[in-house]
Design brief:
Blueprint lengths: L6 E4 L5 H12 L3 E6 L2 H12 L5 E5 L5 H15 L4 E4 L9 H4 L4 H29 L2 E6 L12 H21 L4 E8 L5 H14 L6 H12 L8 H12 L10 E4 L7
Parallel strand pairs: 1-2, 1-4, 2-3, 4-5, 5-6, 6-7
Length: about 260
């Protein structure tokens, strides 16, 4: 997949899935703009990419703030003259300390919505003005299989990820006339900071004190994943690179699972 000289913005690119996406996009030739609410994390990823003779830069970005999304995209456009790819990866599972509280709060609902859904929409709104003018763009939203199926998992997270899938479908119709593709990736079990927090919550709720958090996660993979293996951040990155390439020019409005077979369309 040739992404040579494509300008790609990745939100939440400082760790986990976002980091994996940044590395794979860069490996395929993209100029990767690593954005994260934690600038130090974004710089670490960007510097690692740059050390491999690839072009990358880092920005601090809080997707919940209009001033951030509009000013950062404006600065990137002014620097590079275009924005080809947007990966909306920034997301949270709940408000701080949720895994220990064992109950939902109003903050869990509000903050999760502001980051996972409204923040994603704000970043999209800030970027598509440049893509519309160019009549070209690739937008990849990161949701979750939790947004596709009911279950006992954290309702605010699942509800917002379901919203991402629906938002993608709606926007695909709106953006089609501008030659902008927008799709969603739905990861399954990936060992990230988010998975660490949800494993902590499960361990407390189910009294699995004898198991490490990693063991709780591995047991979930063995129980629920038909292929019996977890997904890696780079697995999400490979699909993101495909959806960002011209090989996917006729794919839009889709939600694609990378989950080892948990959920089948």
């Amino acid at each position: 997949m040739d992404l040579t000289n494509k300008i790609a913005i990745v939100t939440g690119g400082g760790q986990g899935i976002g980091k994996g996406i940044c590395e794979i996009l860069s490996k395929n030739g993209a100029i990767v703009i690593v954005t994260d609410i934690n600038l130090d994390s974004a710089k670490l990823v960007s510097n690692k990419i740059s050390s491999k003779n690839s072009n990358s830069t880092a920005y601090q970005l809080d997707v919940t703030k209009n001033i951030d999304t509009f000013s950062v995209t404006k600065e990137i456009f002014e620097q590079f003259g275009k924005i080809d790819i947007l990966v909306n990866n920034a997301g949270i599972v709940a408000a701080p300390n949720w895994e220990e509280a064992q109950k939902l709060t109003e903050e869990d609902w509000d903050l999760t919505y502001q980051v996972n859904l409204r923040g994603l929409a704000k970043m999209t709104e800030s970027t598509i003005r440049y893509m519309k003018d160019a009549r070209y763009g690739k937008i990849i939203n990161i949701a979750s299989v939790a947004g596709r199926i009911g279950g006992t998992f954290h309702p605010p997270y699942s509800a917002t990820k379901a919203g991402v899938i629906n938002y993608t479908q709606s926007m695909s119709v709106i953006l089609a006339k501008f030659n902008i593709n927008i799709n969603t990736i739905c990861p399954g079990h990936v060992w990230t900071e988010l998975a660490h927090r949800t494993s902590m919550n499960q361990k407390i709720a189910e009294g699995e004190q004898h198991n490490s958090l990693r063991k709780v996660f591995e047991n979930n993979v063995k129980t629920w994943v038909p292929l019996k293996r977890e997904q890696q951040p780079r697995d999400i990155g490979y699909l993101a690179a495909f959806l960002a390439s011209d090989y996917s020019k006729n794919i839009t409005g889709q939600a694609i699972n990378i989950d080892g077979g948990i959920y089948m369309n």
